[in-house]
Amino acid sequence: MSNLKYRIALIIGLVALSIGALVPRTVIERVKRSDGSIGFDTVKRVPLKRGLDLQGGMHLTLEPDESKAVITDKAGAIDRALKVVRTRIDEFGVAEPVVQRVGNDRIVVELPGIDDPERAAQVVQKSAFLKFQITDKTQSFERVIPRLNSIVKEKKLGVAAPDVRGDSAKKPGLTSLFAGKDTSKKADTAATSTDGPFTRHLQASGVPGMFYVPTTAQAEIDSYLQSADIIAALPPGKDVRWGADSIPNAGKAVRALYVLDSRPIITGEYLTDAKPNQVPIEGTVVEFQLNNEGGRRFKNETGKHVKDYMAIVLDDRVMSAPIIQSAISTRGQITMGGGSLQAASDLALVLRAGALPVPLRIAEVRNIGASLGEDSIRQGMLAGVLAVALIIAILLVYYRFSGFLAVCGLLLYVLYTLAALAGFGAVLTLPGIAGFILSIGIAVDANVLIFERIREEIVHGKTVRTAIEEGFRHAMPAIVDTSVSTALTAAVLYQYGTGPVKGFAVTLLAGITASLFTGVFVVRTFYLIWLSRNKTAQALSI
Amino acid sequence: MLRILHDTKYDFIRWWRVAAGLTIAFIVIGLVALGFERGFNYSVDFTGGTVMQLSFTAAPDVGKLRSALDVGGAKGAELAEFGDAKSYLIRVQGDTSATGAEKASQEVKKAVSSVVGETGFKIDRTEIVGPRVGAELRRGALLAILVSFFVTLLYLAWRFEWRFGLAAIIATGHDILATVAFIAILRLEISLTVVAGLLTVIGYSLNDTIIIFDRVRENLRKNRREPLYETLNRSVNETLPRSVLTHATVLVSTLALLIFAGEVIRPFAWVMAFGVFTGTFSSIYVASPILMYIEHKYPRDLEGKGKGPRPPGAGNTK
After folding, report:
1. Does B144 contact chain A (CB < 8 Å)?
2. Nearest Cβ partner for A379 among B124, B128, B262
3. What is the second-level CATH architecture of the domain A2-24+369-533?
C-alpha cells in the first residue's frame, strides 16, 4: 500500500513539475517592437523554443574564404571572427540571435524573425577592413601600361573581349594615354601604335594615380587585372583598386581605378567610433573617430602628405580620395555619395564592430518566411490532434476500461514529453513535431504489448490480479528491447544530424523515455489503484 | 473482450517463397527505376545549390516563368508545383560555388518578378547549400546510417543469441533496400529529413522483429522439441493482435502526417508509411525464414546445456 502511495506521489510530482515547466511565464528578452526598434521587453509565452523553420528566420553558416587570403592560424582567426560577427549581430538588432562556432572553422549565425536576409548576410560577411592609402604620384602605372597591353595580346587574355585592334603595339606614348579614348583612334592612324585595352579604356582623371574606366569596359579590365601575368607586371609596392561606385564623367558613367601606395598610413584598428550622418554637400557620410595613438599617427602621416590625395579604402574598394589640406588628427569621414542612410548606418556598424580577421564566405543559407512557419505549426497541430483523437478512439473501442487507463497514460505521456523538451531547452522543429506525432503512435505499443499479455493470462484462467502482474512482467523484455533499439537510432541521429534532424532526434529520445515511464510505470499504477479499490475484482474490462 | 485475430493458426511461414519472390521483384523494380532516373533525386542538402519556395498571389503562367528563368541568369532552374497551383519550388543546381548559389537566388527573384511583378509573389523559403557543406551532409548521412546499423547489431548480439541477431540484421538490411526501392519508384527527394525517416524505419522494423523473436525465444524455452517451423508460426500468430494494433496506431499517426502536415514533411511521411509495411513484412517473411535457414545449417544443441537462447534480462524467468 505504501508502495502505491509512493507511486502516486511520484506521478503527481512529475505532473506538477511538467506543468511548472510548461505554464506561460513572463520572461525578459530582446524583442522587435512594432516600430522596428529592438529592446528588452517582458513577454509572456510558453517556454517551448521554436526552431527557425517554425518561427521564420535565417540560418547562416560562414567559413573562411581561403581563395581570397592565405590563413595561417585558422582556429585563432575564427575565434576572433566569431567575436566580430557577434558584436555586429548584437548591434544589428535581432531578437535572440545565435552566433556560435561549429567544428573547427565554421560560424553559425541564426537570426529569428529577420525580414531582410540579404542585408543581414552583407552585414555579417563584410570584412570591414579600413585602410588609408596615398595615391601614387610617381606615374609608375603609366609606365607599365605598354607592357600590360602587350601581355594581354601575347597571352591572348582578352579572347572574349571585343576587338583588340592594332597588332604592332610597341612604345605607346603617354600622350595617347592621357588623350583618352576618342583620340586613341587618331593615335592609331598616326602610327604611334599605342593600342591595347589598357590604353583604350583608361583615361587620366587629373588626380595622380586615379584613372577613369567606362563602366562598359570595367569587367574586361577587371578580368585582366585578375590574371597572374598582369599582376606580375604591375609596379611593385603599389595596389590597384577600383572605386566603390560609378560616377558620371563627361556625360558617361565611369568607374575610378586607383593606383595606391601599398603601405597604408593607418588602418581601421585605431577606430573607436563611427556613426552615419547626412551633410549638405557630400550627402551621406560615416563619421569616424580614432583613438589617441591612431590620431597621433594619422596627424603625423597626413602632415607629411599635405596636398596629396588620400584614398579611404574599405574592403579593397576606394570609398573616396580627398586631397589632404592639412594634417588631420582623430576625426574623419567616409563619403558614401548617393548611398542611403541605412547603408551608412550598416557601414558605421561594421566599422565599430571591427574588421573580420579573415574573409568569410557563406557556406549555407536557410531562410524561412514567418508565414510558412505559422503554416507548418498549424498543419502540424492539426495532424497531431487528429492522430491523437484516432488513437484514443482505437484504444477505447478495443480495450474499454483498460484502454481508458492507457489513454490517461497517453495524455500524461504528451505532457511529460513536452515538459522534457521545454526543460532541456530543446528546440522544436517541423521534423521534431513529426517525430513527436510518430512517437505517440509508437508509445501505444508498450500498452498494447502489456494488454495482449494480460489477456492471454486471463484466458489461461489466472485471477485478475495475477494476470495483470504476469502481463506486465512478460511484456517487459520486449518493451525494453524495442525502446533501447529505437533510442540508439535516435542517439545516432542526434550525433550526426544537423538542425531540424537534431530536433527530430531530441523529440524521439524524449518520447521514448516518457513512453517507457508512462507505459510501464504509470499504467501499472493505475491498475494498482483500481485493484486496491476493487479488492474482489473478478473480471477486468480489457 | 473485443478480440481481433485471436488464437489464429495461419501458416505464415509456408508462403515465404512467394513473399521472397515478391520482395525481390519489388527491389529489382526499384533498382531498375533508379537506373532509368540516373540515380536518386537528391535535395540541395546533398548536391549543394539553391532551392526557393515561392507563393504567388494568383496561379502564374508556368510557361512564361520557365522561359523567364531560362533567359535570366538562373539557367537550368527546375520549376515544380509545390502543394497547390500557387506555390512553386525552384531548384538551381550545377553552379554550386557558394557565391554562385547566392547569385542564383537573386537571379531567380529577378526573373520571377519580371513575369508577375514584385508584389505578385512572396519568397517563403530559401535554402542555399555550398558544395563543401553538401559533401559534409552527404558524408554525415551515410555515416549515420552505417553507425546506427552497427550499433543496433551490437545491441542485438548482446541481447539475443547470434542466430537471432543475424536474422534480425538481414531483415533490417532488407528494409533498407526495400525503402530505397520505394524512394526510387516514387522519385521522392532525398533530403536530410528523408534520411531521418529511413533511420526511423530501421528502428521501427527492428522493434517488430525483436517482438516476434522475443516470443520465439520464449516459446523455444517452453517447448524445446517443437520444430522451429511450428514455433515461428505460433509466435507470429500469438503476436498478431499486437502487431495489427500497433501498426494501426503508427499508421494512423503517419497518415495524419502524410495528409495534413504539409508539403515539407510529406516525403518523410511517405517513407514512414512504407516503413510500417516493410517492417511488418520483413519480421515475418525475411527474419523468420532466415532464422530457419541458419538453424538448419547450424543446428542448436537440443539437449540444451547452456547453449539455448539467452534469457532476456531480469525478472522474466517463470
Report:
1. yes
2. B262
3. Up-down Bundle (1.20)
Q: Which of A426, A439, A415 is nearest to A522 (CA)?
A: A415
Taking an 8 Å cut-off on Cβ atoms, the answer to whether A493 and B148 are in contact is: yes
Question: Within chain A, which residue ranges are assigned CATH 3.30.70.3400?
Answer: 57-126+356-367
Task: Nearest chain B residue to A449 by CA: give it.
Answer: B242
How far is A513 from B293, CA to CA, in rounded Å?
36
d(CA B133, CA B140): 10
Q: Does B98 touch chain A (CB under 8 A)?
A: yes
| Chain A environment of B249 (Cβ under 8 Å) | 391, 394, 441, 444-445, 448
- B102 contact A CB<8A: yes
- Tell me the pTM: 0.75
Edge to edge, the sheet with strand B78-82 lists A98-102, A106-112, A57-64, A360-368, B121-129, B49-56, B84-92, B78-82
Phi, then psi, of A453 in degrees rounded to 5: -65, -45
B317 touches chain A (CB under 8 A): no
User: B55 CB contacts (<8 Å, ≥6 apart)?
Assistant: B86, B87, B88, B121, B122, B124
Q: What is the pLDDT along chain A (542 residues), one digit of tens a residue?
A: 568 889 999 999 999 999 888 887 776 665 655 555 555 666 667 777 788 888 888 888 888 877 766 777 777 778 888 888 888 887 776 767 888 888 778 888 888 877 777 777 777 877 777 888 888 888 888 888 888 888 888 776 655 444 444 333 333 444 444 444 443 443 343 333 457 788 888 888 878 888 888 888 888 888 888 888 888 888 888 888 888 777 777 778 888 889 998 888 888 778 888 888 888 777 788 888 888 888 888 888 888 888 888 888 887 888 878 788 777 777 777 776 666 777 778 778 777 777 777 778 888 888 888 888 888 888 988 999 999 999 999 999 999 999 999 999 999 999 999 998 888 878 888 888 888 888 888 788 889 999 999 998 888 888 888 999 999 998 888 888 888 888 888 888 888 877 667 778 888 888 888 988 998 899 999 999 998 888 777 778 87
Mutation pick from A61, A66, A67, A365 vs chain B, by most beta carbons of B within 10 Å, is A365
β-bridge mates for residue A283, sequence order: A279
Residues of B in contact with A478 (CB under 8 A): 210-211, 214-215
Query: Could you give the residue range(s) of every CATH 1.20.1640.10 domain in chain A?
Result: 2-24+369-533
CB contact under 8 A, B260 and A449: no
Concatenate the DSSP letters of all residues of A404-427 into one string: HHHHHHHHHHHHHHHHHHHHTTPE
Domains of chain B are 13-39+134-297 (1.20.1640.10), 49-129 (3.30.70.3400)
- Alpha-carbon separation of residue B124 from A255, A500, B244 (angstroms): 37, 17, 40
- What CATH topology corresponds to A57-126+356-367? Alpha-Beta Plaits (3.30.70)
Is A444 within 8 Å of B249 when comparing Cβ atoms?
yes
- Count residue pairs from A and B with Cβ separation < 8 A: 232
